[in-house]
Amino acid sequence: MPLKLSKNLDEVCYPFIQETSYLCDFEVLTDELCALIGAVLAYLSEDMADIRKDLEQLQPLAFHLNGSVRGRLAIEEADLCWLNARLEHYRNTLQGQQHRFVLPRGDAPVPQLNQARSAAKKAIRALVRVDQEGIEVAPILPRLCNLMCNFFFYLTLVVNQRRGFVETEFVSKSYGPHR
Q1: Helix or strand holding residue 19 (H, E)
Q2: Beta-carbon contacts of residue 33 (< 8 Å; ≥ 6 apart)
Q3: From CA 94, how far away is CA 133, in angstroms rounded?
Q4: Helix-helix angle 77-93:140-162, to 10 degrees
């Protein structure tokens, strides 16, 4: 017998929680993404005011992503342009350190930024599945998720650089030159 939602609304966290579609998974993941951005904000020190301002603007976009498949598309090209400009700004502050692949390390909020990066990847994967289910996905949605993922990665590097944390570069044995 399939699970049914309780008639007691206090026992229902989300009206679509028992759907088998990946759309619900996408919505849960973007909810998690929004919460992770909030966690990052809680850990930011006063000397990270520029990052705080950017994340305060970015956080609502995670919730706009959430409803943009089931409801009305709430992401605009201007949102991507803004985030791309901010990513470029932070990339430029890294002074040649931006093309390294590093192990995900550092003090809070770096772990939370890495979790947000992973949540953005999971949201992209869920969108792929939603599309495969025949539900229309606006191309701007995975573009924004990809951009968010890259943005969070660069923020980890920037936060660690500002704190003087020395990154540990990762060199893959799987894809690098054979020895």
Answers
A1: none
A2: 62, 65, 116, 119, 120, 123, 148
A3: 41
A4: 20
Could you give the angle at the alpha carbon of 97 between the alpha carbons of 92 and 101, nearest 5°? Answer: 125
Q: pLDDT tens for residues 2-43? A: 777 777 777 755 666 678 899 999 999 999 999 999 999 999
Largest CA distance in the chain: 63
How many residues appear in the chain? 179
| Among 175, 147, 160, 141, residue whose Cα is nearest residue 64 | 141
**CA distance linking residue 156 with residue 171, whole number of Å:** 18
- 8 A C-beta contact, residue 41 and residue 145: no
| pTM to 2 decimal places | 0.90
Classified as helix, coil or strand, 102 is strand
